[in-house]
Amino acid sequence: MTTTGERAGGGLGGPAGNWREDNRALWDERVPLHTESAFYDVAGFKAGRNDLRGFEADEVGDVTGKRLLHLQCHIGTDTLSWARRGAEVTGLDFSGPAVEAARALAGEVGEERARFVEADVYDAPAALRGETFDIVYTGFGALCWLPDLTQWARTAAQLVAPGGFLYLAEFHPVAMCLGEDGSAFTEDYFARGPFAYEEPGSYAALTAATRHNRSVEWQHPLSDVVSAVTAAGLRLEFLHEHDFTLFEYLDGMVRARDTSGSRGGESTVYRLPEGRPRIPMVYSLRASK
């Protein structure tokens, strides 16, 4: 996951530098911060909490006995949440420490239907030796780390088994372009990047002292996402927009329980207060093969 920050040295066509190495170093360093953070609350997860949002469970449907691949899985809490719902899960991430943490967590909660693979998302077909899956899942804060959505979509489509589908739940690019008061755009919606950031700490540990602070990210307008997915040969079933998010990044946001979907979820979400115009903060799509 990521949150917006001050854009530095980026802009359309800005230098990406060694973006993959910089991003991997950043995420590697933040793994222990996240496993110990209140944000991830690993102790609560071990006690049985499910980290999926209510709408995700409804939109994906029954996963019992299904083979599910989670791309860019980080420390595996969402991956293992799908396993708790009955899926046979594979999590994939380019951070070695994240994969190690996910494997350890799977062992601690006794989840035998889970495995974790260290690989870059673009290398997933080779790393998984041609396996395909009933469901390919990508969760929040993943796409901003990828420069080439066309290649990502082709990769995802290659991993979807015939009759299966890709499911994506992601932060909405409109909301990510708003200023802190939420009243106006302060970022160019169509500026795709790369954007270089120098930010210590983490969204899960704001005041932590960190050494690897340079990250490189991209912004993907919603039209780019949909176009890439359909061009990869997947059939779009739906595109939904939601009026809440996972971070308190706009002034006046109200913390609330996740009431999305038929049963809601166990995660905390943030909404704009009553009386303020609602905006799309999160979107989800499903596309079948």
Automatic annotation (TrEMBL):
EC number(s) reported in the record: 2.1.1.222, 2.1.1.64
Domain Methyltransferase type: start-end pairs: 69-166
Signal peptide: none
GO BP terms in the entry: methylation
Composition bias, Gly residues: 7-16
InterPro entries linked: Methyltransf_12, SAM-dependent_MTases_sf
GO terms for MF: 2-polyprenyl-6-hydroxyphenol methylase activity; 3-demethylubiquinol 3-O-methyltransferase activity
Keyword Methyltransferase: yes
Entry keyword Transferase: yes
Positions of region (Disordered): 1-21
Keyword line: Methyltransferase, Transferase
Domain of life: Bacteria
The protein, known as: Class I SAM-dependent methyltransferase
Origin organism lineage: Bacteria, Bacillati, Actinomycetota, Actinomycetes, Kitasatosporales
